[in-house]
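Hi V.,

You were right to ask for the full record rather than a summary. Here it is.
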Amino acid sequence: MRVCLVVEGCYPYIAGGVSSWVHGLIKSFPKLEFVILAIISNHSLSGRFTYELPENVTEVHELYLEDVDWNRKGRKKLKLNKAEYQAFRSLVRGRRIEWEAVFRLFQEKPVSLDKLLMGEDFLNIVREYYDMNYSQLVFSDFLWTMRSVYLPLLFALKMKLPKADLYHCLSTGYAGVLGSMAKDMYGSRLMISEHGIYTREREEELLRAEWVQGVYKNIWIEQFRKMSKLAYEKADIVTSLYEYARELQIELGCPAEKTMVTPNGVDVERLKELPGKTQEDEGMIHIGAVLRVTPIKDVKTMIQAFSFAKEREPKLKLFIMGPMDEDEEYAKECVEQVEALELKDVVFTGRIDIREYLGRMDMTILTSLSEGQPLTILESYAAHKPVIATDVGNCRGLVFGENDDFGEAGIITHIMSVEEIAQAMVDLARNVPLRLEMGENGYKRVMAGYRIEHMRKTYRKIYKDFSDSMEFSWEE
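Predicted structure:
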């Protein structure tokens, strides 16, 4: 069976929880052929893989959302026929969108995006939409915003898709559009596995964003909702990592009968018998943060909280462990923050093998603004370490438990709450019995429901159900 994994902004270019999950999934099924369809920002990332691709990955295709090839050749104007005009109009208006006709328009005709977005048809469609809903705005600003909203979607719609038996999209959004279009073109099956709820994550980003203001935020949000609704409607099955995320998918328009919960899983055996503290470590209390140094992880709040905790508990030492090249400007600001606070005992390790460090930690920490079901928490539990985590995604469920009575495995704080986070550091630093008990609670929790064997069994069944009409051997 040939599986096309459609991923946006992660594997195999960027290390992180979702990328690790994808890499582990591929390696779990060596007899399956995988094709990667990767959505990335622009050509500068092309081929710059962080991961060594497993042997059963046979192809990598790239879609650039900030492409520059608009096909400007020729002077002939682009004129949509009546059916094409109606289909594109339905897309812009967001009412009973004729997606199949939209797919055919961009897959079967050599459409110049330059001629379309700068042409009369697009102008008239946008003018009608403007007059109906946004006539209080300056039209020229509105028109250029609509061009910027539709350009990345149109790049996706023009993408020449590799053929596969199953399209497994790791999000809705642009990935979901590609998977839906492939299903329409090839009659293949479609599966959506959301690690975070894509629409909600984009909403949160847009509400915080400074590059888009006022009502234009709503226009962008509505665009992401259109794409997610399409993916939910076309998918044969939609998975999420925990129950509340499944409920959000249903709230956003996904038919309940398509949904199922498939929790993350970690390789517990890989994290056994980790090396402990060195002689140099003795006497210090180590806090480990395994993350990408990016704004979404809110490392600056973590550093500020550590500075307060360090004043009260001088033995504390913070290890910030993970790549610093995804947002180099933000990473530089974090380093400068440590220097400005004249903080001792903060270590930026860069990219590491966590097995070399996790055993030396007394606790781990995650101060993210948004998460799904963080693998770093599960890995911490596998190493018998308690966690401090902000109340985002499934962190509360992992710390307090959802379907077990093992007890608390750490401390939950509000996002960006410097005082709460600092107090949690101090509390765990000063209470060794509590720290050890929470670490054991976490270990019991991960062993009971979050082992990689559990996840592999679930996806083996899903993939096998999709391939039941094919002559395919699942013997490994």
